[in-house]
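does this look right to u?? fructose -6-phosphate version
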Amino acid sequence: MQTTVFSSEQEIARTAGEIFCGFARRKPKAVFGFATGSTPLGVYSYMASEYRAGRVSFAQVKTFNLDEYCGLTKDDENSFFAFMQENLFSQTDIQAKNIHFLDGTAANYNAECRRYDAEIAAAGGLDIQLLGIGPNGHIGFNEPGKYFTEGSFKVKLSQSTIDANSVYFEGRDMPQYALTMGIGSIFRARKIILLALGEQKAQAVNEMLRGKITPRWPASILKLHDNVSIFLDEAAASLVRDIV
Ligand code: F6R
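got this back:
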């Protein structure tokens, strides 16, 4: 893992965004794995501005998102699909036919997860996966547990995740379940970029970088991957300043 501490969120967004743009320029049919949440917003904004400036096209890239809430349709304002549509897809030339998402309204979640894993495999696997990290160390919605997960699956969200994300669900209960890529799916990405911003991520970053590899801190598995870049702001890096 290569860890870099940046002095501003904008610098992280520009650096990570430029990695995705560079991929699209060199390999127009690149396969991108995306995350939702507040952390990657600057990255998507950078990618959109590069597209608007005519410096990159995403017309042929394929995209796969990490996760989706169970029970929310694509056009639900709280769905991760709607988030991506608003913040990236509608702002660039990414083609609807190239966008892949877990369907949180599928009648058979198990079949839906197998379909998604097969689509990732058929696309040739993920060239690059963008990740945030939960305060509890989750990546995707792989919550702390007793074992590392493999392919996509239905997960019961932890209280930590519900506490962190319920702010987005004004006036309604947030879903308690989601479909998510498994740790195995994420791990097979050829390159991984994990971003962490803010003091509330400091403990998870500390466990990821310094702790032992354990499913109790799911991101700790990334230590075994040979192409991971970790981008931190000062606050997220506050407990690891002696080693990075
Ligand atoms: C989102 C995802 C999650 C988030 C994590 C951090 O698709 O899979 O792992 O990356 O919960 O969320 P934020 O960025 O909102 O702090």
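The longest strand covers residues 191-196. idk if thats expected tbh
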